[in-house]
Write a structure and sequence with these properties.
The structure holds two protein chains of two kinds. By secondary structure, chain A is mainly β. Chain A is 15% helix and 39% strand. The longest helix of chain A is centred in the C-terminal third of the chain and has 17 residues, at 149-165. Classes of the chains: A mainly beta, B alpha+beta.
Chain lengths: 170, 975
Amino acid sequence: MVDLIADKPFQGLPLSIGRASVEGMDPGPVTAIQPFPGATLPMPFPQAGQVLAQGGGRLVWAGRETAFLMGEAAPDLAGLAGVTDQTDGWAWARLSGPDMAAVLARLCPLDLRALPVGTSARTMLTHLPAIVIRTAPETLEIGVFRSMAGTLEHELSAAMRAVAARASLR
Amino acid sequence: MTQTHRIPGKGLLIDRARPVRFTFDGVEVQGFHGDTLASALLANGQRMIARSFKYHRPRGVMTAGSEDPSALVEVLEGSQQTPNVRATTQEIHEGLTARSQNRIGSLRHDLLAVNDWLAPFFSAGFYYKTFMWPRAFWERLYEPAIRRAAGLGSLSGHHDVAVYEKAWAHCDLLVIGAGPAGLMAALTAARAGAEVILADEDVRMGGRLLSDQPAVGGLSGPDWAARTVAELAAMPNVRLMTRTTVTGAYDDGTFGALERVGLHVPAPGDLPRECFWRIVARRAILAAGALERPIAHPDNDRPGVMLASGLVSHVAKWGVNPGRVVIFSNNDSGLATARHLTAQGIEIAAYVDPRAIPVTEDFPVYAQATVTGTRGRHGLRDVAVTHAGGTSMIPARTLALAGGWNPTLHLTCHMNGRPVWEESLAAFVPKPGMVPGLSVAGAARGRFSTAACLADGVEVAGEVLRDLSLRPKKTPVPEAEDAPYAIAPLWAVDAGGRAWLDFANDVTTKDVRLAAQEGYASVEHMKRYTTQGMAPDQGKSSNVAALAVLAEATGQGIPATGTTTYRPPFVPVSIGALGAGGRAEGFAPQRLLTSDAKSRAMGAPMIEAGLWYRPSYFPRAGENDWRTACDREVAQVREAVGTCDVSTLGKIDVQGRDAARFLDFVYTNTMSTLKPGRVRYGLMLREDGFVMDDGTCARLAEDHFLVTTTTAAAGLVMRHMDFVHQAFCADWDVRLISVTEAWAQFALAGPKSRAVLASLGIRADLPFMGCTHIDLGGVRARLFRISFSGEEGYEIAVPTRYGASLFEALLSAVHAEGGCAYGMEALNVLRIEKGFITHAEIHGRVTADDVGLGRMVSAKKDCIGKAAAHRPGLTEPGREQLVGLMPVNQGETLSAGAHLYNERDLATRENNQGYVTSVAPSPTLGCWLGLGFVKDGRSRMGQVIRLDDGLRGHKVLVEICDPVFFDPEGGRMRG
């Protein structure tokens, strides 16, 4: 018999530097839902960039014809949509603080004015393909491929250090 | 030195209460906080700062900005050595260490100054004419010698490990330059509610208002600028970026900008040296002002010769005392400068102007006169002024040149727009629309008076705001001087001797005329022949004068001569800033396996594949090279059992009623006939008929498949399948998504693999090429019976979070059965022994038939690439086919990349019979094995051919054989 123990994707989080913090987060189960052409789902489906409340969780737009149901088990959508467990495919971190935008600007080409609270985007953080969700004016949830969690930690901490160091110029 | 050349009480930017010590050429120098390297050295009486590029002439400071062609130095910080730093932009700080560059010996006694005596030989085109033969000498002798003698600055030879940064910014309006026009434009837009970024190269915003200090709206220039900047700083929709040079205009309103972040700080710590910004703006206004130009007269390059604007700035901003000044001007702004300096107590020894101007000034005026020479070995001593009465030698410490102004329009040309010649200004001005979304305001479009600049800022901002659907609020234009700008063009004074145009690259008027004379009469040819405008300053002070001299020489006129192209970047941008974060491991993301920490703890060296880090081998005590470990691992797999992390293989989940139909379309073989719970090997072609990838396809349920890809092609196959879906069958009931990262997957291979499964509590009654869901200690897992080793093999997949734990469990279980973990080296040997292909073989230029898999292209259905695979060239006899290669003499090694020739043929391209793709030392067969491609290889089994590795000088006779060396019937893996 074997007794498997789950581990966490991030080794170096949480981390707080200057006026920004980042922590690993567990979004609960994550299921990709990809409706088949013409299918009517028993729930609303997010438009590009939308984040919808769904039961106790969220339905987050995650790409072309794709939404991630996060924080709630997937309903039975047999015949209506492709349903794939993505819980372990992504590593999620929460970046927050007054310098969140300044840190993000070091890593990502997104214009935060186009990402109001309650929306999501697919983007790149340096070289990392990512999903970002703005949950509050100064809070951003970031999902990257789980194998790249270490690189995300490194990139975030480097950006946070550089942003914090600018305080000495003021 | 004790700042002997400082004017008491003057210097807007310096803080006399904060002395700063720094080192130049090994000597400690004192300046004040706020000084640049240039201003501090000038304040200490040091005019000579550098040696010139070609002739090693003494050079000083000409300007007060980034455009300076002469004052180039090296800055040293630890192992960091930054060449070609303009002393005019480097702020001093405690501990700053700089030195002059481009010299052998000391700055005063540069041995290469001999080049100046040899100048007659170093005319334009010198290299082209001189170093013609013998041809081989160029690379070995001439070029290294020339590179040693010429060039600007040197590098440390060490990696640049300093902190740099890249960042993005977004706004409605980017205003470039914070002089009067830029400040008014930013103010107008900000008051209307636009999100504004105002970027300025200097430490303090205000532009010429800080130097010329005209009265604006009843305040002094600096006071008005400070008040306006304060208002802007207090607005939440405004971002002020000082020390930030906008370097380039790119597509879609994107601008590059270089910010000097930590270069002026003694101990920067985590502070980046520079930040390279990408600013995305809906609209932009270029208010970069204008750059003054010199006049080319004989010996106009001595330390002490400056541009009038540079002199005024050094007096106003840093309180530098220039001593006796001669001003040589052809326009009214030079005259205004003379009056301005006189009013501040600077002694104007002579004002020299070729125009017939009245001589009623408080300083000596030489009208209808020119400067025809200078004297002073290491710095200006006398100025020769030629006038109606003859030539007078006028003692002076500073000669200020005022040759007129060139609008700083460089950015408008970055998308290949061409400016137009404006006769009344004797300058090029931008046309509207040269860069989409970029408007130009103020001196940058030839509005030279302060009043005109202020008004233009308001006006242009108003136009832009209307484009942005914002309503401008009424912004009154403050009152200021509105002097007309009158100029009588004078580009060069022809009085014998050398007259410099391009100070940075040592190009004189003679060189330009010679270029024209030798047929290089177009401006682009002249530039390349003389190297004018090709130094770090990109000809900012010399381009227009050089083409004017060229136009004169060819008689074409300036508009017909045209100008060279201004390209990004506007100022030199360090590679470190452009590549911030990308050094060493920062180059690409690192994808780490769940087994990574354990593998490293076991001493496994890592090899990178598809960004993943995979263990090469797991050395045990006493195993000092890869070969020993690899041989042992192979043997253990063949005799007992091994485990290997194969999570890196791409996994694509395919669902839907049309999933099987879709896979039939992308695979050459048929997947629709696969039963649920079974796995099939599959081959995919590109649209052009060549093999793209291979892998397995498992049918998990009727409408649910799992496709695996090779590690390196995982992204490629996903993209390909997405493309096929979107382009050809978007209406099918099929959905694809990558699950590569969701599962950690481990291979078990070897005769004892079933025993290992049993010890983990897994019932292994799976047939060869079967798959099933299993329960692994309460975790839902997947089990596949597939083999890449030729042994009985399984792969177990668990959700990634359990990967590390499963790897530990597998290690214990395989060790208990006399097995081991195996790495990429052993995996490679095992697959070569079995003739299994990887991307070494399916490298993008082979067909299914070439690799012996022609029968996998189903005749009963269509698939992507099938039609193209039937093109004549891909089906003709004589194609190179996959074969096995074994050394005739068992002990000899093979090498991959080698080419194959018939035994007696020379190793020439025409004789090429094929090449080797993969090799491995096989402990199982006791010799090296190779896979490769040979012309008509399958019909040449048993023939002997020569492996010839030209790179390694390695020749071996090999026998062509079947690529499956071991267990060709496959009995071992079928169990």
